[in-house]
């Protein structure tokens, strides 16, 4: 029984070291609320094993209980290559008049798909629409070897946070000579075919941009412009990752695509 308890304590302590006490988490801490919930659950699991109390667990919880939640936090993601992506995000789903300051589920799926299909991006000029805080694009730049990557959004606060995250992950052009990275303001209504040709994208991606019926017409018109702006005689490949919250909205998107 004592051996089982010792083993349980070692496992819990290892989990703690791999998460809340990990150097990456200490440098770029997740939200206070998340850490409190995580540590509380870890303590419950440890207490259920009837093992001796772990001072490290209660010290970690005590430390986070004394911290006030701010308006910003970090989320960290480990890439298959062993490197990490760290993102500064808002602790609120809606802040500064936008939902673009947090990572949404479709961006996670698109990033995972990109890591499994690196050939779609290798050596390409990639344009990302609605980049948000930058998870997908940073993952692509770090793991898929594009020649050029253009992050884009239209909300000022999102663009500022996006630039900060690009720099945080070492993707400014001085630190990342293998891929040319830029962050651009791109208004879907106002962007011209001339501007799109200057970008010269051979691959276009977007995540979670099909969520509001009011912007679907604008998005479809933009995609039509993009497909007319061929690079090297061929139209760019376009990949869109969506979370289907409302089937009617998604069907509206597919219907309008079929009209072009």
UniProtKB/TrEMBL annotation:
Gene3D superfamilies on file: Vaccinia Virus protein VP39
Family in the record: Belongs to the class I-like SAM-binding methyltransferase superfamily. EEF2KMT family.
Keywords: Methyltransferase, S-adenosyl-L-methionine, Transferase
GO cellular component: protein-containing complex
Stretches assigned to the FAM86 N-terminal domain: 2-64
Species for this entry: Hucho hucho
InterPro entries documented for this protein: FAM86_N, Methyltransf_16, SAM-dependent_MTases_sf
GO BP terms: methylation
Key word Methyltransferase present: yes
Protein name: Eukaryotic elongation factor 2 lysine methyltransferase
Single GO MF descriptor: methyltransferase activity
Lipid biosynthesis listed as a keyword: no
Top-rank taxon: Eukaryota
